[in-house]
Design a protein that fits this description.
The protein has 433 residues and is mainly β. Helices cover 7% and strands 45% of the residues.
C-alpha cells in the first residue's frame, strides 16, 4: 500500500475512534404544554412526560425546562418507563422552571416521581403535590432508589396510607436543600422515610402525620440534618423524628411535635448525636417529651437546649439506653415523673449540664423528681447544676429522687434532697434521697 494511502487510512481510523469515544452531549428539552400526553414524540408539541421519556432514552445528562403552570398527571397505569402513572427517571435528568411556579400534581393516581436505581435526578424550584400510589408501595410524593437532589422545592400534600413515606422515601442517596416537606401523610413516616443515605440542609419539615412512627422523619439507615427545622409533626412514636439507624442533627430546631405515646421530639433506638440544637415544646402522651433514648448503642446530646417539653414521664428526656448528655441545659420541662430527666434503665452520663426550673407531678396526683427521677439503671452526674425544680406531689422531691452516682463537682439545691448538703466536690461515692 502506498505510504500516502496508509497515512490517510490511519487518520480516518483515528478520527473515527475519537468520535466514538466522545461522550454524548447534554441536551436541553423544553416542555411546551401542561397536558399529560404521550404521543411518542417530543418536538414542538412536548409534554413533561414526553420530555422525560426522551431524556431517559437518550444517552447523557439532560435538562428539562418547564414553563410556569400546574402539570397534572392523568395517564392511568403502571410501568417503569414513564409512559403512564408516575414519572419514572432512569437516566441523569435535571428538572427546573423557565420562570414562575411549576407544580407537578400526582392527582391521586400514583406517586409523582419515581427515581429508579439507574436514575439521577435534580429537582430545582418545583412543587411536588397530590401523589398517592395505589397498592402496597412506598413514597407518596417521590420514591428514590438512585440519586436525588431536591433543591429550593416543596413536597406537600402527598400520601402513602399503606406503607412508607408520605412525602419522600429514600433507599438510595438523596440530599434535600432549602426545601419544604409539609402536610404529607404516611402509615409509617409522614414526611420522609430513609433507608439509604440522606442529608437535609437548611430545610423545614412541618405538619406531616404518621399513623405509627416518625411524623416528620423515620430513619432506618443514615441521616444528617443540618440547620433545619422539624416542627409541628405528629405520630404515635417519634412525632418529629424516629430513628433506628445513624442519626446526626446539628444546629437545628425540633419543636412543637406531638406523639400519642413516646418521643415527641425525637425517639431513637440507634446511635447518633444531637449537637447545638434546640428541642422545644414537644408533647408526648407517655414517655420522653423532648427525647426518648433506648437500645444498646450510644446516643450523645451536646451543647443543646431541651426546653418546655411535656410528657407523662421524662419531660425533657427519658433514657432507657446509653445516653451521653454533655454541656447542655434542661429547663422548664414538665412531667409526672422526672420533669427534666427520667432514668428508666440503661445508663445516663450527665456532665457539665444545668437541670433547672423543671416540674414533676403535673396532674398533682402522682409523680416524683422535678429535676431527675432515677427509677432504674444508672445516672452519673459530674460538674452539674440541679436547682430550682418543683415537685407538686407530697412527699416533695423537687430536684432529685433515687440513687445517683456522683463524679464530683455537682451542685444540687437542698430543698427535697434530704441528707445532702447541696454541694459535692470530693467526687466520691453515691448519694440517695
Amino acid at each position: 500500500m502506498p505510504r500516502s494511502r496508509f497515512v490517510a487510512l490511519s487518520c480516518l481510523l483515528l478520527l473515527a475512534s475519537l468520535l466514538s469515544a466522545t461522550p454524548a452531549q447534554a441536551a436541553t428539552i423544553t416542555v411546551t404544554k401542561t397536558a399529560d400526553t404521550n404521543d411518542g414524540a417530543c418536538n414542538a408539541d412536548c409534554s413533561l412526560r414526553e420530555a422525560l421519556i426522551r431524556a431517559n432514552t437518550v444517552a447523557g445528562a439532560d435538562t428539562i425546562r418547564l414553563p410556569a403552570g400546574t402539570y397534572v398527571l392523568t395517564r392511568l397505569g403502571k410501568d417503569d418507563a414513564a409512559a403512564s402513572g408516575d414519572l419514572d427517571v432512569t437516566s441523569e435528568v435535571t428538572m427546573r422552571p423557565i420562570s414562575g411556579t411549576v407544580q407537578v400534581d400526582g392527582n391521586g393516581i400514583d406517586r409523582v416521581i419515581d427515581v429508579r436505581s439507574t436514575g439521577k435526578l435534580t429537582v430545582s424550584r418545583m412543587r411536588i403535590v397530590g401523589g398517592q400510589p395505589s397498592g402496597s408501595v412506598d413514597g407518596g410524593g417521590i420514591r428514590n432508589a438512585g440519586t436525588l437532589d431536591l433543591i429550593d422545592s416543596i413536597v406537600r400534600g402527598n400520601a402513602e396510607v399503606r406503607e412508607w413515606g408520605g412525602g419522600l422515601v429514600n433507599t438510595g442517596t438523596a440530599k434535600v436543600t432549602r426545601s419544604l416537606i409539609s402536610g404529607n401523610h404516611g402509615k409509617y413516616a409522614g414526611g420522609v422515610a430513609n433507608f439509604g443515605i440522606l442529608t437535609v440542609v437548611d430545610s423545614r419539615l412541618t405538619g406531616n402525620v404518621s399513623g405509627d412512627s416518625g411524623g416528620g422523619i423515620y430513619n432506618g439507615s443514615q441521616i444528617t440534618i443540618i440547620r433545619s427545622e422539624v416542627t409541628g409533626n405528629w405520630a404515635e412514636h417519634g412525632g418529629g423524628i424516629y430513628s433506628t439507624g445513624q442519626l446526626t442533627v446539628e444546629r437545628s430546631r425540633i419543636s412543637r411535635n406531638m406523639s400519642s405515646e413516646t418521643g415527641a421530639g425525637v425517639r431513637t433506638g440507634g446511635p447518633g448525636v444531637i449537637r447545638e440544637t434546640v428541642i422545644e415544646a414537644n408533647r408526648a402522651g407517655s414517655d420522653g417529651g423532648g427525647l426518648h433514648v433506648s437500645g444498646s448503642d450510644t446516643f450523645t446530646v451536646e451543647r443543646s437546649l431541651l426546653k418546655a417539653n411535656h410528657a407523662g414521664s421524662g419531660g425533657g428526656i427519658r433514657n432507657q439506653g446509653t445516653l451521653q448528655l454533655f454541656d447542655s441545659t434542661l429547663a422548664r420541662n414538665r412531667a409526672n415523673d422526672g420533669g427534666g430527666l427520667l432514668g428508666g434503665g440503661g445508663t445516663a452520663y450527665v456532665i457539665d449540664v444545668s437541670i433547672i426550673d423543671n416540674l414533676a407531678g403535673v396532674d398533682e396526683l402522682d409523680g416524683n423528681g422535678g429535676g431527675i427521677n432515677r427509677q432504674s439503671g444508672s445516672v452519673f452526674l459530674a460538674n452539674t447544676l440541679v436547682a430550682g425544680n418543683v415537685d407538686l406531689v407530697s412527699p416533695h422531691h423537687p430536684d432529685c429522687i433515687g440513687a445517683v452516682i456522683s463524679g464530683g463537682y455537682n451542685l444540687l439545691q437542698t430543698n427535697g434532697c434530704s441528707g445532702y448538703p447541696g454541694y459535692d466536690t470530693d467526687g466520691t461515692g453515691a448519694f440517695s434521697y
